[in-house]
């Protein structure tokens, strides 16, 4: 009997050794072997369906929603909560799948709820984590909207395991995964042409964090850091700029056209100028895809309700390069007309200088 038991033990050890291959470190392994009569010969996690794992997360910053953003903007992708650890830039999509509403790539805990109402409607509440709707949809499959995740860091962590709440300290061992993200230049190149608000917020927080911790109030620290840089390094007058966020979404952000050309002029004298200009929107690309055709321009657009702006570097007909900034506020004409006025001014400047 003892030799037989030892034989089984030896067999288990040999089979375990095969599964304990270093190439599978960190993997969940399940295996089962029986004889012809169903008698168990070897088992490891044979009845495992799902292993409940917790994710411990420490991120560089997670301020969430800047205090001065408009509530009406918050359901939208462009106003997603700001967290260093995120997925799909804090967004997910609402689809009509042959008449049935669905969230892609997954719901991340957001529920879709039908309501009775006299008229069809569709509304997303990120705080309730629900999509409310009334009415019916066609049998075709199409994307309806791109929405902001209620908690991007929770959504990203859910791809690895389950967050159970806050902790005072992380486990006393090396992390299983370190995610450093894109370089600053790569992020700028992805941010500027399409005018990505979420990336703009990250750029502000990352830039200020290079000089130290952001502390418990990241945006207050970032605001002071950005304004100090603009006043002391760039030489922008203190009364000409007020910073509340990185994207310009806040209605508390203020800046003059003179301050913007000063910033452009300072950047033009830096060693990184070519990379800086190369990351901007240009005619036929990004937010200028259908604007300023044939004009030598690289810059950044800006838009809010009753606000339109364009700032950048313009190559004139004579070959001269100038910094230019146009900012329009509180106009009552259609936004397209306001942009047309800006473009006409830029074209005329290119022609006469």
Largest sheet properties: 3 strands, antiparallel
Question: Total domains, how many?
Answer: 3
Relative strand content: 15-25%
Number of strands: 13
In the CATH hierarchy, what is the superfamily of the largest domain?
A: DD-peptidase/beta-lactamase superfamily
The CATH architecture assignment of the largest domain turns out to be: 3-Layer(aba) Sandwich
Give the CATH class of the largest domain.
Alpha Beta
Query: How far apart, in Å, are the first and last alpha carbons?
Result: 101 Å
Measured on Cα atoms, how large is the radius of gyration?
28 Å
Short key terms for the protein model shown above:
alpha+beta, 28% helix, Beta-lactamase, 353 residues
Describe the structure.
It is a single chain. By secondary structure, this protein is α+β, with helices and mostly antiparallel strands. The protein folds into three domains: 2-44, no CATH class; 71-157, no CATH class; 184-352, Beta-lactamase (3-Layer(aba) Sandwich). 28% of the residues lie in helices and 21% in strands. It has eight helices and 13 strands. It has helices at 2-19, 152-157, 184-191, 197-209, 218-234, 257-268, 273-278, 335-352; strands spanning 31-34, 40-44, 91-97, 100-104, 111-114, 121-125, 130-134, 141-148, 241-242, 254-255, 296-304, 307-315, 321-329. The strands form five sheets. The chain has a three-stranded antiparallel β-sheet with strand order 4-3-8, with no helix packed on it. Strands 5-7-6 form a three-stranded mixed β-sheet, with no helix packed on it. Strand 6 and strand 7 form a beta hairpin. Helix 3 (184-191) packs antiparallel against helix 4 and helix 4 crosses helix 5 (218-234). It is globular, with a radius of gyration of 28 Å. Residues 1-9 have low confidence and may be disordered.
């Amino acid at each position: 009997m003892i030799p037989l038991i030892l034989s089984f033990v030896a067999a288990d050890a040999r089979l375990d050794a095969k599964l304990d291959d270093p190439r599978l470190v960190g993997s969940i392994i399940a295996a089962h072997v029986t004889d012809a009569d169903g008698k168990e010969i070897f088992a490891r996690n044979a009845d495992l369906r799902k292993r409940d794992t917790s994710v411990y997360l420490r991120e560089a910053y997670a301020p969430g929603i800047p205090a001065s953003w408009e509530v009406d903007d918050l359901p939208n992708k462009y106003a997603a909560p700001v967290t260093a650890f995120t997925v799909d830039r804090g967004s997910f999509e609402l689809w009509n799948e042959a008449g049935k509403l669905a969230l892609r790539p997954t719901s991340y805990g957001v529920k879709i709820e039908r309501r009775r109402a006299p008229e069809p409607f569709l509304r997303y509440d990120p705080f309730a984590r629900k999509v409310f709707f009334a009415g019916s949809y066609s049998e075709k499959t199409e994307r309806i909207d791109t929405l902001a995740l209620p908690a991007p860091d929770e959504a990203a962590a859910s791809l690895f395991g389950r967050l159970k709440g806050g902790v005072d300290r992380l486990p006393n061992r090396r992390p299983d995964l370190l995610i450093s993200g894109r370089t600053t230049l790569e992020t700028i190149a992805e941010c500027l042409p399409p005018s990505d608000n979420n990336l703009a917020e990250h750029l502000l927080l990352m830039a200020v964090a290079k000089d130290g911790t952001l502390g418990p109030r990241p945006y207050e620290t970032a605001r002071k850091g950005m304004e100090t840089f603009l006043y002391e390094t760039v030489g922008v007058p203190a009364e000409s700029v007020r910073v509340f966020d990185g994207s310009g979404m806040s209605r508390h952000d203020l800046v003059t056209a003179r301050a913007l050309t000063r910033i452009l002029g300072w950047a033009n004298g830096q060693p990184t100028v070519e990379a800086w200009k190369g990351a901007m929107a240009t005619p036929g690309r990004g937010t200028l895809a259908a604007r300023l055709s044939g004009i030598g321009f690289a810059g950044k657009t800006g838009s809010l309700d009753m606000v339109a702006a364009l700032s950048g570097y313009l190559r004139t007909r004579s070959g001269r390069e100038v910094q230019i900034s146009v900012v329009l506020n509180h106009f009552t004409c259609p936004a397209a007309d306001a942009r047309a006025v800006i473009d006409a001014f830029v074209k005329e400047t290119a022609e006469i200088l």
